[in-house]
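Changelog entry: the Winged helix-turn-helix domain-containing protein record was regenerated in this release. Current contents:
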Amino acid sequence: MSDVVDRKSGWTFLTNHARVLIAVATDPQTRLRDIAATIGITERAAQGIVSDLEEAGYLERIRIGRRNHYQIDPSAELRHHTEAGIPVQALIDMFRHRDLGADRAGDPG
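Regenerated structure tokens:
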């Protein structure tokens, strides 16, 4: 019975790919180690996910000096056939709206 409870409590709605994309959208100059720490994955896993996203056309890595900067293609569509036609920007906006709401909640003005 505990295996069933553990399995049920361990899943989430968003994949790590979605979380990495949202992290990059929030801060296009973020470092892979910061993405990994925020999401709770290894730096190597974050690097692999960024490569997947780049290969699929969701983002572009731009080298500026010693740092990577990322540019997201907001018109790229979500991959699953049930979300066909929905741009990735819709997902990003949903989470940016959440973050903006949290910022406003602490703002007395």
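Strands lie at 59-64, 67-72.
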